[in-house]
Specification:
2 helices; 6 strands; elongated; Thiol Ester Dehydrase, Chain A; six-stranded antiparallel β-sheet
Amino acid sequence: MTNPPNAWTGGGSQSANELGMRFLEVPTEHATAELTIDDRHKTPVGAIHTDVLVVVADSTATALAISSAAARRTSDASSAREGGDAAFFVASNLHAVFLANPRGGTIRAESRVVRPGRRLVVVRTIVTSDAGRPLCEVTTTHVPA
């Protein structure tokens, strides 16, 4: 599995790289990433730290927001006149609901675009366990940096 190229998956996220995330796919409407849990990702009581779940969700959503916005810019000739040439998007809002927390395995983040745009992208991400159990649901709003 190789990381698809974009400003984020190509090494733009130091946190994602240090955690050991793997981007599996980042087309323009959905994105998927995985992380194999090890001891550095756990709390002293053995649960996955919620920060890890959020970083995985946010990094996957950001990669998708960048990819989605880039596709919309290249398909719309008027975007250059509207200042739609920003190459990098950042989260301006993040809402997370934690549903469960396993002790290990591989977690998977799947992001889908809820509202595509050149200047605002809304993404919903579900992080699941390797058994397919939902661990958290995250909705993010992304704007040009």
